[in-house]
Design goal:
The chain is built from twelve helices and seven strands. It has a seven-stranded parallel β-sheet, with helices on both faces. Helix 1 links the parallel strand 1 and strand 2.
Length: about 280
């Protein structure tokens, strides 16, 4: 077995969302693993990157320009950008799904054989399999403004824009996996439970302390940015070269407990509220 089991040394990778939180932790770890790391975000990253490119995921022209600015062949794409529900719903679905998808699809012609893509979804998207007709209709729309209009027309039906975007990431990941593997490209995503980053405060404004505390109960604390970054690095590594189309919960067992009925989220929320 190779000593460099993850295989990042000398690889050329792109991290979208490298300014802070999980994206920053991911970029920093990749640099330490010997990768040539190119970052993109709306704010510069504190990580010592090979290059940084400012990209606004709400703007298709900026996305195309960002890909052109970085240029060259790429071995791995990490999608770690996102907005919480405190932003307008149309912006949430644009950044969290439409922009991420456009950025990724724009890179596909530039990916080397054996390349991999990973995106950060969320446990907020865990019901994606129960809403497939709606989600397949949504992800079939590639034009940004048409997709935003679709959301405006169905805002009441689709509900929380954050959950919609994350369900769309999950669906798109699994829909694209069979085709991309034929091109020797893998695609996966992770579904984190709440992460102890600055964005947690924004989620608290929307969900409240009791809900967030309930989602942290499995391990008794929130995950760290590093604990969420490492699974991303694993999924895009040589060690995961037979893994594709996976939506991986990174939540200390919470999703499994909820799916099997071992955990009752309403009871957990009530207990967290009572303990507050």
């Amino acid at each position: 077995m190779a000593s460099d089991i993850l295989g990042y040394k000398g690889k050329r990778v792109v991290v979208m969302g490298c300014f802070s939180g999980t994206g920053e932790a991911c970029a920093r770890a990749l640099v330490d693993l010997g990768a040539e790391v190119h970052g993109a975000d709306i704010k510069p990253s504190p990580v010592n990157l090979a290059s940084f490119t400012e990209v606004d995921l709400k703007n298709p022209d900026a996305i195309a320009a960002g890909i052109a600015a970085i240029g060259g062949r790429i071995d791995a794409v990490f999608n770690v950008s996102g907005l919480p529900q405190t932003f307008p719903g149309e912006d949430v679905i644009t950044v969290n799904f439409l922009g991420i998808r456009a950025w990724t699809e724009g890179w596909i012609p530039h990916l080397n054989p054996g390349a991999a893509i990973v995106s950060v979804s969320s446990l907020g998207g865990m019901k994606w399999l129960t809403r497939q007709p709606l989600l397949r209709e949504f992800i079939a729309i590639t034009d940004f403004e048409a997709a935003r209009q679709w959301y405006r027309d169905r805002a009441e039906e689709v509900g929380d824009p954050y959950s919609l975007a994350k369900e769309a990431i999950n669906t798109w990941t699994q829909v694209r996996a069979p085709d991309l593997i034929g091109q020797d490209i893998r695609i996966n995503c992770t579904m984190p439970s709440p992460i102890d980053t600055p964005m947690l405060g924004e989620f608290r404004k929307v969900a409240g302390d009791a809900v967030l505390s309930a989602f942290a109960r499995a391990k008794g604390r929130y995950s760290t940015a590093e604990e969420q970054a490492l699974p991303l690095i694993l999924l895009n590594s040589d060690a995961a070269r037979f893994i594709s189309g996976v939506c991986l919960p990174v939540d200390a067992g919470l999703a499994g407990g909820l799916a099997t009925g071992v955990l009752d989220i309403q009871k957990m929320i009530a207990e967290a509220a009572a303990a507050a």
